[in-house]
Structures are given as structure tokens and as C-alpha cells.
Amino acid sequence: MSKIAISLTVNGTPEQVLAEPREQLADLLRGGLLLTGTHVGCEHGVCGACTVEIDGVPARSCITHAGSCDGAVIRTIEGFGEDAVMAALREAFAHEHALQCGYCTPGMLVAARDVVLRLPDADEPRVREEMAGNLCRCTGYRGIVRAVLSVLASRRRAKAAE
Amino acid sequence: MKPAPFAYARPKDWSEALNLLAAGARPGAGTQSLGPLLNLRLAQPDTIADLRHLPDYAGVATADGVVRIGAGTTHAAIEDGAVPGRLGEIMAGVARRIAYRPVRNRGTIGGSLAHADPAADWVAVLPALGATAIALGPRGERRLPTAGFVTGIFETALAADELLRAVELPVLPASARWGHWKFCRKVGEFSKATACVLALPGQAPRAVLAALDAPPLVIEDARALMADPAAEAARLLDSFPGLTAWRRAIAGAALRHVVEQAGVA
Distance of CA B233 to CAs B96, B120, B236, Å? Predict the structure, then answer.
């Protein structure tokens, strides 16, 4: 099957790539662009390990064809180095033991950042509901939920102090 | 797994999309249901026609008491309030419980309805809300009630040469009462039983029972269900003879819950 030309922006860099029509965004990022921070788990949209940002919102890169991302702006876990919310989440994940093997962590962080920004008043049940699309087989989730809640709480404190 | 090879086409307009369809292409929208089927090689189309870039594919417009929702409108947009009023409130509540937010950011209302997974949320909810499906074919638009639209597992009343272009729903009064309940063992997984009911002042309530490995059962006049949910649920569930005992129990519970939520004694 002939390859298709795709232009997209990945972590701020414009990229011109050739992809097979059946190629998923996750495989293009990992195999084509060598951005291996995006992990591939279940490959049917359930586990969340492949979650990246597409045009500013989190999405599953394992069930999004590369061809459908022509013209899109993609941000992978490698693209959040300068992001203050992600920095706070990384620190909270470390502090709360929210990871062990780290396989789910890139997707967890992208999903968690969206929760923190979209739902500033989320409580524990809401955080658990919102993070249910990211599976972790190590931690049992308590640390992950605590980490997200701690970032939410510190942002609320900072806002109240303004 | 990786999908079997296919060709990719991105139609610029609806007539090009219909031509691709006539040539045997499989339409794709958010691919949040089709993508897994491709990855598992349960679907192996020769060509995917990516509908996401068609003009007016996404978006919500209200005129003359009717809300028209473009088939490509995402669940997340509906969750975030794209649909106005009481109807929007009801639909936002449904959308929030579809799969997970990263899936809702891509998945579309039209894709979900046309895909016709019996466990899908809009398959159950749209008939209860009195929605009409707007199909587009070579001879123009055709209006199909969503009650009866899903005819089987992954089967709809769309003709082979038709695409789902939009759904239209009547605006609801603030006094509209609504019940919706589904059973998932884990947040975001496919429902094992779904029920919903809409009660409008001065009209017989309409209920739907769905996600039972069969097309949804639409109960146009649900007064008997409202009056005696337990007895009527038992009678309705006899139209699903293959159900296991626990599934039947959960489906009965779904009907009782929605009657309670809608608050009609």
C-alpha cells in the first residue's frame, strides 16, 4: 500500500513524514520520529499508555491514524519539559510514589494534566473517575490519585493567595 | 496488533465522500470504535474514507425548536455544553460517561450511532430523546427516526450508499424529566445494561432498554413501566430470551432506577 505524505507539528517542530495509511500515530511517533516516551499498551484505546495531546487535547495515539493527523499539532511527553503544570505533576508523582515501572506514566501525566487544567475543583471521586481511562498495574492508583489531588490543591491554594 | 493494510482517502466534500462510499470505502470519523476493530483485524476494509474534514461535519445549530448536531461533533464537545438548554444538560450528562475523556475528544456522536454497537450510549439515548437521523445519499437527504435506526448488532437502517450527516433533536422544556442508568463494572467500559426515560409534561413518557447484545428496545408509551416498574420490567425482559440471570437482574434494575430518577410515580 503506497505511503501518504503527512505534515504535522510535533513538540513544536514541523515534520514532513511518509506514513502507511494503516500506521497509528503512536507508531509514527515511536518508530518514525524516535519519540519513544509514548508507550503502546493495549492498542485498542483502553489502557491509556499511548495518550498524547492532539491539537491541545489528550487523545489515544494507538487508535488515531497518522493520516488523520495531517496538519495537527501533537505534543508527546517529551514536549512538556518547560510546562509548569507538568513539572508540578512530575514532582507529585515522585513524591506520592505514583509510579513503579513507569510504563503507564507518560499517558498518566498527559491525562492528569488535562484533569488539573479542565477541572480545577475536582475532588477525589471525580479524579478517580477522570483517571479511569489510564491503567496502572503496579501502584494500585492510590499514589496516582493523591498526586493529582495534591497538584489540584496547591493550585487552588495559589489562586486563593492571589 | 496492527491493522491489515488499507488505503486512506480524505474526501474534501460530501459528493466525493459518497463516491468513495459507492466504491466500497469504509467511512471513518473519530475511529475510536473502528480503530480497535482495525487493530484487532476484525475489520479489514480496502479503503478508509476519513470524514473528519468534511464541511459542517461537526457543530451544533438550533432553529425553530430543533437542535441539529453534525455527525462529527465529538462527545467531549457535547460534554462541555455544545448543546443548549435542558436537552444539552441531559446530553452532557450522557456524554461525560462515554468511555474516557481522551476517547471523547475524538469519538463522534454520528460515528457512534452509525457504528451501532448495541452497548453504545447514543444508540440507547437518541431514540429516548426523539432524535431523527439525517442520512445523505446520492438522491439527497433522508430523515430516519432513531427509534428503529439500529436494526441489529453493528447494523443500521442506513442504505449501503448513505452516510449519516447529522442528528436532529427537539428542544426540551426545562420541566423535562430524565432518567439514565447504565451498568459498567469499571468506569468507561462498555455497558452491560442501559436504560433511559424521558417524561415531558402532558405526554406519555418514552423509555429505552439497551446494551443487551441486541438492538435497543424503544418503549414509546412507558406509562405501564412508570406505574409498576418491577412487573413491567419483567414483562419487557421477556423480549430478550437469551439473557443470563445476572444480566436480566441488572437490566431490570436499570429500568427501576430510571423510573425513580425521572420521578414519575
Answer: 27, 21, 5
